[in-house]
Amino acid sequence: MIQNILSNIYTQIALVFSAFGGLLSDQLGGGYVVVIMISLLILAYAIYDEYKKEKIYSAKNLPVPVVFNISNPADAKNALNALFEIINQTHPHHKANLEKYCNIIEEDLIFKYDGDIFNEKRFIDFLKVTKHDIKKLEAKTPQNIHFHIVYIGPIANAILIGTMLGTEGITLYQYNKSSDSYTISLEIDSRVYKEHISDFQMIEKETIGDLEGAKNVTVAIDLASHKVALGKLQKPVIHLQSTVGATIHEAKDFIRANQEIYAVINELQQQSPHITLAYSMPTTVGILLGMSIQNYWDIELTQFSDGEYKTVVKHLNEIKYYF
Q1: Which candidate, 17, 19, 123, 201, has a CA 20 to 30 Å from the CA of 262?
Q2: Residues with pLDDT less than 50, the chain
Q3: What is the spatial distance between Cα 81 and Cα 319, in angstroms, rounded to a whole number?
């Protein structure tokens, strides 16, 4: 605290004013008391300013921006700077203060993977290191972190990133191409996204093939304009298709869509030994789905590439986030 007060801009102003004010008083033949009083008032404000900042940076739910870039040429630093600009509206000079009060620097906030997403072992190793580094981030703050997240990359890996995240205290952002900016897609402060629901409002379910006795069932999720290639999937298939349009945008719709998808998978995993997922859906739903299923069940994640659905992770339940 003392070191921060000494480096505070108002402390520097107080010192400069007292020095030059003292010289001016000598020239004018007095006025030392006024100079001292003004300097002390400025110093008092410096102490208050540092107290206010320290209180914010030791408070619960400290906002921390994070960018995940998975095998994508987009500039992760630009995305991180965009997040800082948004957070600066409520926490001025947030990047500098994170470093000053929490020892969190820019390099701690970017998680980039440049390899082949179909190299399962390498990507799981990346997940393990990322999970470890996230825990280090959390340890640097006295209270809980509220993560502000931009994800850039394939949808399969967005699901995997979701499996590592906590169940609440997260704000997700999406890129708006028309304005070249990032906007909030969803704020998560509870586990409502995986609450049990008994009726479907956003998706309709169709079964293709015979489920009875099947050792593997494919769940195809269609929530975007680019449709899943059903003909390239192993049967039987449970096809979940949006009933509300090509692409969803509203926060409440992201939540509801995930609840309905999770309900289908939760029921299915009780009767099918292995589930394969194929999807065309917003990144926000992908992260939510990962947060919901985590690594409890035997689920295979795929990604469409070169005209076929290739495996990214074969057995989600075998991923253990420790070394």
Answers
A1: 123
A2: 28, 30
A3: 32
Identify the pLDDT of residue 28: 47
Residues 6+ apart with CB under 8 A from 88: 94
- Closest alpha carbon to 311 in 288, 268, 278, 264: 278
Beta bridge partners of 146: 63
Instruction: Tell how far CA 172 is from the center of its chain.
Output: 5
For residue range 277-322, what is the model confidence (pLDDT) as tens digits?
A: 999 999 999 999 999 999 999 999 999 999 999 999 999 999 988 6
Q: What is the largest CA-CA distance in the chain?
A: 100
pLDDT, position 232? 95
| Rounded CA separation 284/254 (Å) | 7
DSSP 232: G
Are 315 and 302 in contact, with CB atoms under 8 Å apart? no
Given a contact cutoff of 8 angstroms between Cβ atoms, the answer to whether 71 and 117 are in contact is yes
Q: For residue 92, report the phi and psi dihedrals to the nearest 5 degrees.
A: -55, 145
